[in-house]
Structures are given as structure tokens and as C-alpha cells.
Design goal:
The complex is a heterodimer of chains A (194) and B (180).
Chain A lengths: L8 H9 L4 H11 L3 H23 L4 E2 L2 H9 L4 E6 L4 E4 L7 E7 L7 E7 L5 E5 L10 E6 L1 H6 L3 E10 L5 E11 L11
Parallel strand pairs in A: 2-4, 3-9
Antiparallel strand pairs in A: 1-7, 4-7, 5-6, 5-8, 8-9
Helix pairs in contact in A: 1-3
Chain B lengths: L6 H9 L4 H23 L2 H20 L9 H18 L3 H9 L16 H10 L2 H12 L4 H8 L3 H18 L4
Chain lengths: 194, 180
């Protein structure tokens, strides 16, 4: 690998994650000891990696996660508030100042379908958020959804409905499960209506 | 126009006599590169700094004694020294003090860490703009750096497919963050 040819940022990310083969990693290391442009790019990747860790710890993202990820965060001291909701059921929920992550475990048979979307609707039934083509863990019987803790902490008393929608090859839609969240605000602030 | 002397030429100059200017220039170049190696393998700024100092003094010792016969293989020599030093650090070897006492005064001033500053809110927006699978893959991969196989299992995909998704997400994130 010459210093004239630079290393792709995604390969440097793999190097940082330690998932390259030994020969690949060694070739990159020798290159990095001669090429400051790639060193700068790796520093940028490291900064992004650390930034992602901070964002993940902050719980501000809406995303589907795994149990292993939650265990890792919990092991690092994150305080996780979780609600398990069977399909067709509702749950009373809140979030406090001490919570770092807000998790909903949505039970469903998610074995079929080409694509699964997770949609959220307000009290009038208007779609507010759609997570398209979410990761579908095999054989788990539920989706682990992380709601943005920033959003939840600012939300007023409200009701929100989530639906897991499955789409087949022809685009036909079916509802895998519907879940209702009755959110009670417990934090002071402009959204507190009592 | 000033033409930058390459690493091998600096190595030759150090080996041919008492050329403190060449030593300082070579160390200025190598220090951040060695620190990056240390960060990758030791995952700790202070340990990476230790590694950098030990590798630099070991290298200086070798260059002054003309033990590097092929200056063009300088990078390979430093890489080998880095590897051995990481092993020593992990074994808790204390050669550091002896070497630092002997060569410490010749080392240049410590090079400050040079990680770029990130706008955390912008990064959050960029992450939220990724597709669902890309966001899950990249957040879970970077949060738990040992989790490559777990992420693949979670998604029901091969590790090769997860790699494709991760690469796409890295490129999109860099673009969103305005990387050059």
C-alpha cells in the first residue's frame, strides 16, 4: 500500500473496530506510519466513534436496538426505563429526570414479510413518525424500540399509538401489532398541564 | 520552494552523525502516528502517550546506533517496535523509566492530542437521518466495539452484509458531517 493511494474511511472504521484480518490490519498500520492524510482521516473516524458513543449514552436517538446493546449500556451505568407491551394492549408510561434511555418492547410475530415499518400516530390518528424497514431480529418475538429520551422528557400528557406494519413482496400491508402509550408527564416545565 | 525531506533521508542523517534537527523533525512526524497506533491498540490516551514516548526513545536509540540498515524500511521498523512495546506495556514491563532517564531530555515537547471537535447535535441529526438498519448497525457497532458478530446475529444477516451497511453508513455520516 503506497502513500499515494489513501485508505477508504469505511475501511479505517473497520480497522478502528478491530474487525480486519491480521494482514489487512498490518498493511494499514504500516501505511499509517507513513501517511498523515490517512492519519487525519482515522482521527476523524475516532472522533465520530466517540461522538456516537456519547449520543448512544444520551438516549436521544429513535431506533431499534438489541438486548446485547442494552446490556452493554446498562453495564456502563445507563439507567433504562422499559415498558413491555403485548400486541393490542396499552401501557401507562412516564419518564423521569434520572432516566437515560426509554425502551418499549413491542411483542409481535415478526417472522414473515419483506419489510416491517414502525409507525407512531397521535390522538387524532395522524401519523407522526415512521421508521421504515426496521431491523427485524430473528426468533425474538418482539421489537426493542428506543424512543428519544429528549423527546419523551419534553412531551406533555398524551396518548400515542404505535403500529408494526408488515409489507409483502406485492406491497400488501398487514398490521403485526398495535400498542398504545398513555404518557404522563412527571417532569416540571412548559409541557406540564396540571 | 522548500522540498520536504522524506523519512528515510532523515533516518540517514540521524545515523550519520549528531543531527538534532533531523531527530526533532522525525519525531515531530512520528509522534502523532505512533500515538494513533497506541489509541487503536490500547484504547486509552494516557497509555497511547506512554507508548509514543517509549517507541520514540527506542527508535532514537536504534537510529543513533545505526541498527536500522535499510532506512527505506523505517515504517516497518517503527511498526515492529510499536508491537513489541504494546506487548511490554501489557506485560507491565518497566523498561520505560530506564529509557526515559537516558533519552527523555532529547525528546521533543509532547505533541498535544489532535482529535477533531464534533458538533454533537449535528452528529445526532446525521445519525437520525440514516436509514433504520444503517443507524442500528453503526450505533451498536461503535458503542460496543466487540459486537460485530452480535450485530450480524441481531439483524439475521451475514457479517459481510453488515459490513456493506456499515460502510455505506460511514460514508453517509462523513458526508453529512461535512468531511473532506
Amino acid at each position: 500500500m503506497s502513500t499515494e493511494s489513501h485508505i477508504d474511511a469505511a475501511v479505517l472504521a473497520d480497522y478502528w473496530l478491530g474487525i480486519l484480518s491480521d494482514p489487512e490490519g498490518e498493511a494499514i498500520e504500516e501505511h499509517l506510519l507513513e501517511c498523515d492524510a490517512c492519519g487525519a482521516r482515522l482521527r476523524e473516524i475516532i472522533a465520530v466513534a466517540e461522538g456516537i458513543r456519547n449520543v448512544a449514552r444520551g438516549g436521544a436517538l429513535r431506533m431499534v436496538v438489541s438486548d446485547a446493546f442494552l446490556e452493554c449500556l446498562s453495564g456502563d451505568g445507563a439507567r433504562i426505563r422499559q415498558y413491555t407491551v403485548p400486541a393490542g394492549a396499552g401501557v401507562q408510561c412516564t419518564v423521569t429526570a434520572g432516566d437515560d434511555l426509554l425502551i418499549g418492547r413491542l411483542a409481535a410475530d415478526i417472522s414473515g414479510g419483506k419489510r416491517v415499518d414502525l409507525c407512531f400516530y397521535d390522538e387524532r390518528g395522524v401519523e407522526q413518525v415512521r421508521l421504515m424497514d426496521i431491523p427485524v431480529p430473528l426468533g425474538q418475538g418482539s421489537i426493542i424500540y428506543q424512543e428519544s429520551i429528549t423527546f419523551a422528557k419534553a412531551a406533555p400528557d398524551s396518548m400515542m399509538t404505535a403500529r408494526l406494519l408488515s409489507f409483502d413482496e406485492a406491497g400488501g400491508e398487514s398490521v403485526l401489532g398495535e400498542y398504545t402509550f398513555h404518557h404522563t408527564r412527571s417532569l416540571p416545565g412548559p409541557g406540564l398541564q396540571r | 520552494m522548500q522540498v520536504e525531506v522524506n523519512d528515510a533521508e532523515l533516518v540517514r542523517r540521524i545515523g550519520s552523525g549528531d543531527d538534532r534537527e533531523a531527530e526533532a523533525e522525525l519525531f515531530r512526524r512520528m509522534a502523532p502516528r505512533i500515538r494513533l497506533y497506541g489509541l487503536r491498540h490500547l484504547r486509552n490516551e494516557a497509555a497511547a502517550e506512554d507508548l509514543m514516548q517509549q517507541v520514540l526513545v527506542t527508535t532514537l536509540e536504534a537510529l543513533r546506533a545505526r541498527r536500522l540498515r535499510e532506512p527505506d524500511k523505517f515504517a516497518a521498523f517503527v511498526l515492529g517496535t510499536c508491537r513489541m512495546t504494546v506487548l511490554e506495556l501489557r506485560r507491565g514491563a518497566q523498561r520505560k523509566e530506564r529509557l526515559l532517564q537516558r533519552f527523555g531530555p532529547d525528546l521533543p515537547v509532547s505533541v498535544p492530542p489532535s482529535m477533531p471537535q464534533l458538533d454533537q447535535e449535528h452528529l445526532t441529526r446525521c445519525l437520525q437521518n440514516l436509514k433504520e438498519r444503517e443507524r442500528s448497525v453503526i450505533v451498536m457497532s461503535f458503542y460496543d466495539e466487540q459486537a460485530g458478530a452480535d450485530v450480524a446475529k441481531f439483524l439475521g444477516m451475514s457479517e459481510a452484509n453488515v459490513r456493506v451497511i456499515r460502510h455505506r453508513a460511514v460514508h453517509q455520516l462523513r458526508e453529512c458531517m461535512g468531511a473532506a
